[in-house]
Write a structure and sequence with these properties.
Elements (H helix, E strand, L loop, with lengths): L8 H15 L6 H8 L3 H8 L2 H27 L2 H17 L8 H8 L5 H27 L9 H21 L3 H13 L9 H8 L1
Helix pairs in contact: 1-2, 1-4, 4-5, 4-7, 5-7, 5-8, 5-9, 7-8, 8-9
């Protein structure tokens, strides 16, 4: 019979996430992780496997507690266009209020690991597709209710919003100034604005 774990798994995964998020994958050693998690190296390996497996667990936890929680909340509480604006408002607030300029763990991973790790590249692509999917759902619903312009294809707007999100997160690691980030985002959000000419008849013609 397996012995029960003598540690709080949520707490130690949170500690590992902080280490990877602050220092990156390559610069974080197993010794660093074990010290931060309050485990011996042997216990770490027994519980989570190697450093790569632990990193994947930490990243998935980051996505679940950050992006997925935010998306679920916004899609249930806000109108489609408002959900997009509120999403970016929260990202800018997080970036500005982060004294250590850690950025986004997803974006950091994409820059550090994806270029030379095909398996990890596939995993990150799925995460980025999830983010793009959130934007696509909001844009499509916003176009249907008349709050978002029909002048640009919903899929193209979603891709542009994804690119803007990644760019903002990288920019914030260098210069996390609210006026800079909001200024960079403003023209992107402007493309969402519904035009008066986009009447129901116009939308019907474009869909036909």
């Amino acid at each position: 019979m397996a012995r029960p774990r003598e540690f709080d798994e949520d707490a130690v995964l949170d500690a590992a996430t902080v280490q990877f998020w602050s220092r990156g994958y390559e610069a974080t050693s197993v010794r660093d992780l074990a010290a931060a998690m309050g485990l011996t190296s042997a216990s770490l390996y027994n519980a989570f496997g190697d450093k790569r497996a632990l990193y994947e667990r930490a990243l998935e936890r980051y996505v679940e507690r950050g992006f997925r929680e935010r998306v679920q909340r916004l899609e249930h509480q806000a109108a489609p266009r408002d959900a997009i604006v509120m999403f970016f408002d929260e990202i800018i607030r997080l970036s500005v209020n982060d004294p250590h300029r850690k950025g986004c763990l997803i974006v950091n991973s994409a820059m550090e690991l994806a270029p030379h790790d095909k398996q990890f590249q596939r995993a990150l692509n799925r995460m980025l597709k999830d983010i793009e999917g959130f934007f696509a759902r909001c844009v499509t619903a916003g176009q249907e209710d008349g709050a978002i312009s029909l002048d640009i294809d919903a899929a193209d707007i979603a891709k542009s919003l994804l690119a803007s999100l990644i760019g903002l997160r990288v920019l914030a690691r260098v210069n996390p100034k609210r006026e800079l980030l909001e200024g960079a985002l403003r023209p992107v959000l402007a493309m969402l604005d519904a035009k008066p000419k986009a009447t129901h008849a116009t939308r019907a013609r474009r869909k036909s």
